[in-house]
Amino acid sequence: MSETLFDDAGAEAARGQEPLAVRMRPRTLDEVMGQRHLLGQGSPLRRLVEDDAPMSVFLWGPPGTGKTTLATVVSRATKRRFVELSAVNAGVKDVRAVVDEARRRMGMHGTRTLLFVDEVHRFSKTQQDALLPAVENRWVSFIGATTENPFFSVVSPLLSRSLLLSLESLDDDDIRALVERALTEERGLDGRYTLSEEGADHLVRLAGGDGRRSLTYLEAAALVAGPSTQGGASGDGPVLITAEHVERAVDRHAVRYDRSGDQHYDVVSAFIKSMRGSDPDAALHYLARMIEAGEDPRFIARRVVVHASEDVGMADPTALQTAVAAAQAVELIGMPEARINLAQAVIHISLAPKSNAVITAIDAAVADVRAGRAGPVPPHLRDGHYKGAAELGHGKGYRYAHDFPGGVAPQRHAPDGLTDREYYRPTRHGAERRFGEVLQRIRSVLRGEDRNA
Question: Between 219 and which of 20, 336, 350, 360 could a Cys-Cys bridge form, CB atoms 3.0 to 4.6 Å apart?
Answer without folding.
Answer: 20
